[in-house]
Q: What sequence folds into this?
């Protein structure tokens, strides 16, 4: 007759017993101090098949070839970014902490000052050369404009309609750098070609809106563009969907995005967040962490590139590849200077 | 024993016991999900508790997360008492925080004893206007406040985002320029070293004062009495000579103003600027906070503490379990706590009834 209530009491007893037990137990297993790496993702989080996943790949490369252990946090925005950085930095076992994305700029600078014994690195840090960086912080920058120049040249050489498109995520100096390089690349090889430009929005949400990406892409394709390059995070997934539907080409960004629309992804401008993360972990492990400066990854450093492999070789004529490869050398040697804005 | 009440029969005991039972039960259910992702629930929970309640830094973080939830919860609770469903706390707090930052940007050189009240007032005006609009529309046209507050949430988000990215932008960021240094609220760690690094600041005192105000206003003033009558039965209120439309407008405006105070925590006490996306649904959590707190100002404080712990705790355990699971855990706790009230009460009542019968046998 007391069945209902006794069930409740039973559950409570079990649960509170468990809590008592666990409060006696010690929290985390102890590892050697400063032997692990921590990483805090941008709002897109893991699974964006782009930027954050590239950083994650870097962690895995470090795990596979350096035996490096890692922990990561996916914050939801606002004050969580700083809290997450602090949480990782305050763990004894973690010695190097990454922030993924320009949005970490202020937070990671503050946290780096509060934890002078730990090392920090921030991908796409908005580096202001008038302000000194903390000695324990590296600002990781990429020359996205150089990679975008090369995919722009491919688009300019391969368009049949003399019209190509660009779709950006959040309108910002960072994404305009992609646009500027792309436009310069198109015009360099094909001065007559028009470039249609659209942005998904003016907020961080613009990187997370595939529906908007699809809408913009469909509109550009119907205006006559036959190749669209996107620099828009998850929003780009909509661009690929449009490419599949319209049977037109799209160009991926940050990682090789062939799998998003096999046969329709002409190439991808890869920004090797993984190379940067891995390189910095290796330098740190070897005691060569060089903080207080920006570390710039361009074509020369293999920080950016375009994809040309067995998947998309049939799509790109040999002559086009040769010509673009020549442009790559011209950029590396400084013969071509790619604009940033 | 006859004639004497069983201790479980006291409403106070029940009000206290039932939410606790619900929380414990929800953690038990959450444990199943943790097992599914291959982690040890005991370990995850022990980290959740030890790093939120076990260190002063964790407590600081928890209190920092609690502060905006108190404001949002009070806002929703006050409107509830007037029979209004304020879904618009999110928009109200966005506007409040933004106006706080905006006024702070343009008032450099004002001494602190003026600047701090000025910025607090700015937040209340920003949020208050955003509460006044749906209140006015409801009172004058009968347009339902739920729809209008939801719509105004979108308007607020879009407005703020437009101004932050296009007008008041620090290049390459998503935030405004900083407010005047005199408008800053001190962080606790400037007084108590134990809180070092955690962003908890004196705005939590403003939150507690706001709770006290809401309690006094509702329970101790004539206006509060009118508000409650309107909430219980608008027709009777009208018959009794109480203006329903005045009270609707008034309670929505005050509710909005309280939500607008969220800016004191983030803008005046933490970052010293307005950042786009600073609130991840605080206004909506405010609804759950108010419901769990029984629309009572002091209940709201307790509920906000629980939700604040869940919010920070979610971040703490994120190194062990994926972000999605953290969201599931938080939602399970909320669902259990809010829906279990009746179930547990019924079980208690049945238990007491049967017990009385068996005693009488």
A:
């Amino acid at each position: 007759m007391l069945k209902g209530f006794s069930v409740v009491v039973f559950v409570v007893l079990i649960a509170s017993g468990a809590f008592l037990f666990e409060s006696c137990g010690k929290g985390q297993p102890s590892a050697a101090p400063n032997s692990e790496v921590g990483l805090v993702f941008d709002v897109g989080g893991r699974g964006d098949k782009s930027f954050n996943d590239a950083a994650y790949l870097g962690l895995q490369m470090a795990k596979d070839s350096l035996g490096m252990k890692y922990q990561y946090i996916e914050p939801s925005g606002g004050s969580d970014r700083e809290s997450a950085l602090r949480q990782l930095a305050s763990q004894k076992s973690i010695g190097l902490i990454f922030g993924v994305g320009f949005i970490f700029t202020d937070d990671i600078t503050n946290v780096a000052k509060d934890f002078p014994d730990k090392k920090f690195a921030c991908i796409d840090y908005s580096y202001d050369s008038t302000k000194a960086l903390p000695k324990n912080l590296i600002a990781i920058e990429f020359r996205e404009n150089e990679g975008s120049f090369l995919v722009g040249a491919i688009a300019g050489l391969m368009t049949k309609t003399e019209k190509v498109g660009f779709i950006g995520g959040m309108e910002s100096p960072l994404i305009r750098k992609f646009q500027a390089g792309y436009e310069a690349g198109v015009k360099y090889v094909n001065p007559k070609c028009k470039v249609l430009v659209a942005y998904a929005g003016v907020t961080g949400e613009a990187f997370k809106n595939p529906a908007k990406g699809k809408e913009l892409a469909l509109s550009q394709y119907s205006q006559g563009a036959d190749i669209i390059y996107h620099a828009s995070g998850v929003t780009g997934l909509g661009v690929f969907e449009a490419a599949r539907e319209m049977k037109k080409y799209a160009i991926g960004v940050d990682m090789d995005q062939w799998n998003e629309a096999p046969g329709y992804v002409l190439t991808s401008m890869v920004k090797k967040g993984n190379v940067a993360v891995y390189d910095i972990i290796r330098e740190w492990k070897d005691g060569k962490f060089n903080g207080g400066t920006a570390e710039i990854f361009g074509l020369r450093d293999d920080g950016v590139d375009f994809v040309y492999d067995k998947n998309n070789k049939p799509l790109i004529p040999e002559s086009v590849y040769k010509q673009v490869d020549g442009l790559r050398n011209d950029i590396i040697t400084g013969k071509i200077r790619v604009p940033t804005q | 024993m006859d004639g004497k009440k069983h201790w479980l029969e006291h409403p106070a005991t029940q009000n206290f016991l039932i939410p606790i039972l619900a929380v414990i039960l929800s953690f038990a259910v959450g444990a199943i999900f943790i097992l599914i992702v291959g982690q040890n629930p005991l370990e995850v929970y022990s980290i959740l508790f030890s790093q939120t309640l076990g260190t002063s830094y964790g407590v600081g973080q928890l209190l920092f997360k609690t502060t905006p939830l108190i404001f949002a919860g009070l806002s929703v609770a006050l409107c509830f008492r007037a029979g209004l469903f304020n879904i618009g706390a999110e928009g109200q707090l966005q506007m409040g925080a933004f106006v706080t930052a905006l006024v702070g940007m343009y008032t450099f050189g004002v001494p602190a004893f003026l600047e701090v009240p000025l910025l607090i007032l700015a937040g209340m005006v920003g949020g208050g206007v955003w509460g006044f609009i749906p209140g006015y529309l409801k009172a004058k046209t009968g347009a339902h406040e739920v729809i209008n507050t939801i719509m105004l949430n979108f308007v607020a988000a879009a407005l703020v985002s437009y101004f932050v990215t296009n007008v008041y932008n620090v290049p390459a960021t998503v935030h405004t320029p900083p407010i005047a240094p005199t408008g800053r609220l001190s962080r606790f760690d400037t007084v108590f070293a134990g809180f070092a690094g955690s962003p908890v600041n004196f705005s939590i005192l403003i939150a507690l004062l706001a709770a006290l105000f809401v309690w006094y206003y509702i329970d101790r003033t004539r206006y509060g009495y009118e508000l409650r009558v309107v909430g219980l039965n608008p027709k009777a209120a009208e018959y009794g000579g109480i203006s329903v439309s005045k009270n609707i407008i008034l309670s929505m405006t005050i509710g909005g103003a309280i939500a607008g105070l969220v800016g004191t925590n983030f803008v005046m006490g933490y970052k010293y600027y307005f950042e786009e996306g600073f609130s991840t649904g605080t206004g909506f959590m405010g609804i759950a906070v108010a419901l769990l707190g029984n629309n009572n100002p002091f209940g709201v404080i307790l509920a906000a503490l629980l939700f604040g712990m869940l919010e920070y705790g979610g971040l703490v355990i994120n190194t062990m379990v994926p972000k999605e699971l953290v969201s599931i855990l938080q939602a399970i706790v909320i669902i259990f706590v809010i829906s279990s009230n009746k179930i547990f009460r019924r079980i208690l009542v049945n238990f007491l009834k049967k017990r009385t019968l068996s005693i009488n046998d």
